Amino acid sequence: MSEAPKTDHAYDGIEEYDNPLPGWWKWLFIATIVFAPFYWVYYHGGAEGRSVEDQFGIALAENTRLQFAEIGDLQPDTATVAKFMGKDSWVKVGKSVFRANCISCHGREGEGKVGPNLTDDSYKNVKTLGDIAKVINNGAGNGAMPKWSHRLHVNEVVMVSAFVASLRGTNAEGGRPPEGNKIAAWPEPPPEEEVEDEKEKS
């Protein structure tokens, strides 16, 4: 039997050993409580660029710029968008561009809010895959869809076009009803080997 001291507490015959927490643990706990308000004010007090989300966005943007330097400036046409539709890492870049700039009109999942639903098979201003980049660059609907050519890098336009194209047929829940006309299916992305060959030639 243990000879450790016991408290005066007893519940249905169950006794409790008197083993208080170490002093260092108590002071560490108190220190975290004291530290928390200063942490919140510094990182979440509204100062631009301090939050973890802001710092991640800055790091992601810098990393994207480095990657763009490797691939050069792309052409926002059907062949290029189709090629990058087959590269998941770049589609994710397009997703981040979409989430940063497009969800207020098209919804977080592309389901459509003010702007049309991007997850069905009907399109108002698009007939070919390359038209997605044209709409992003030049706008549409007499300004209802603003032009983004002066706000986004040409490579960002290609990536977000690839992401928007990938939303087709996902039919997000709660989406706006179809608008425009159904169009032909997107062309298949070129095989990975062909993409690598083109990269080596360039």
UniProtKB/TrEMBL annotation:
One of its GO terms (molecular function) is metal ion binding. Residues 169-202 are annotated as: Disordered. Residues 89-168 form the Cytochrome c domain. It holds the Pfam family FixP_N. The chain crosses the membrane at residues 24-42. Residues 190-202 have a biased composition (Acidic residues). Keywords: Heme, Iron, Membrane, Metal-binding, Transmembrane, Transmembrane helix. InterPro entries: CcoP_N (IPR032858), CcoP_N_sf (IPR038414), Cyt_c-like_dom (IPR009056), Cyt_c-like_dom_sf (IPR036909), Cytochrome_c_Oxidase_Subunit (IPR050597). PANTHER family: CBB3-TYPE CYTOCHROME C OXIDASE SUBUNIT FIXP (PTHR33751:SF1). This is Cbb3-type cytochrome c oxidase subunit CcoP. It comes from Stieleria marina. The gene is ccoP.
